[in-house]
Design brief:
Layout: E1 4-7, E2 28-31, H1 40-49, E3 52-57, H2 59-63, H3 82-85, H4 88-93, H5 95-109, H6 116-129, E4 134-139, H7 145-149, E5 154-156, E6 159-166, E7 172-174, E8 216-220, H8 229-241, E9 244-248, H9 260-266, E10 271-275, E11 287-290, H10 293-301
Parallel strand pairs: 3-4, 3-9, 4-5, 9-10, 10-11
Antiparallel strand pairs: 1-2, 6-7, 6-8
Length: 310
């Protein structure tokens, strides 16, 4: 394995969600490897021997299902970027606008289905489980498409669109209502120029726990917030055990997730990147496969000729 030296503290000590590394001043990354391989046959040999596979996924895999990513050119809801709305400060200033944004995203997901990339991952997990091998999916996505595809071993590090958290009592609950509250019915249109609904706070989603009634917020990790330490502990454990890592549809710019795969690569574990384009982390990995994940993943994760058929 071509070596990379990374000098940093454990990922679990860097739980901040943001577009730049909070540890940039303390972390040094020294890439000393050649250009990654795009030889699928070589990847398949590594895949056939792997016993514990960690698959890290980002917005790119969901984009192929038609899910808006709010990234890059045209990545706006009305006139705002996601990072303008997905913050505690934005919610404190205007909870109605933020709830319109998340209501729009929730409603969109009712019409979206997993694509061949999601399905290839779920099928691979189920098949390898029967062989005593483990696949775990660690996703930054909040759309639950992996769950819908059938993935069982799933860590949603940024939360879910379909969970809420009470700002008063802290209760977290699943919520698949459509709309989530009557006042949001027909609201949330994304087109520029759409007027804010300016829904009174008392008519926004409220906690249904007995005696509470507090204002609900989406149970997602916003920019500037810490990731759940318990979830990060699980991520840390899975990455420490994996003997193959796939990075699928992620730009490798949102921290701390951007450091997960480089950390794995640094200890000599093969890492394969599947993306529409190269990323800042590409040259630190052994493999890079460019193109739609729905095309590359089914081939990469298909049953290998050495696998036993039960």
């Amino acid at each position: 394995m071509r070596p990379v030296q990374i000098i940093s503290r454990r990922l679990i000590s860097q739980p901040y969600c943001g577009l730049t590394s909070p540890a940039s001043a303390q972390t040094k990354i020294h890439p000393t490897m050649a250009r990654p391989s795009s030889n699928m046959a070589d990847f398949r040999k590594v895949f056939a021997k792997a016993k514990h596979i960690a698959i890290l996924t980002g917005a790119g895999v969901s984009a192929e299902s038609g899910v808006p990513t709010f990234r890059g050119a045209g990545g706006y809801w009305r006139k705002w970027k996601a990072q303008d709305l997905a913050t505690p400060q934005a919610f404190a200033r205007d909870p109605s606008r933020v709830w319109e944004f998340y209501h729009y995203r929730r409603e969109i997901m009712h019409s979206k289905d997993p694509n061949p990339g999601h399905l290839a991952i779920a099928e691979c997990e189920a098949r390898l489980c029967e062989q005593g091998r483990r696949v775990v999916v660690i996703t930054q996505n909040i759309d639950e498409l992996h769950r819908k595809a059938g993935t069982k071993n799933l860590l949603e590090i940024h939360g879910s669109l379909f969970k809420t958290q009470c700002t008063a009592c802290g209760n977290v609950a699943e919520n698949y209502k459509s709309p989530i509250c009557p006042a949001l019915s027909g609201k949330g249109a994304a087109e520029p120029g759409t007027e804010d609904a300016r829904i009174p706070v008392e008519k926004l989603p409220r906690c249904e726990e007995a005696g509470c009634g507090g204002l609900l917020r989406p149970h997602v990790v916003w920019f500037g917030e810490n990731l759940d330490p318990a979830v990060l502990e699980e991520v840390d454990r899975e990455l420490a055990l994996c003997d193959l890592c796939l990075v699928v549809g992620t730009s490798s710019v949102v921290y701390p997730a951007a450091m997960f795969a480089p950390q794995v690569s640094a200890r000599g574990v093969p890492v394969a990147e599947f993306n529409m384009e190269t990323t800042p982390a590409t040259d630190r990995f052994r493999f890079h496969f460019q193109g739609p994940c729905g095309t590359t993943l089914p081939e990469a994760l298909a049953r290998h000729e050495t696998e036993t058929v039960s």
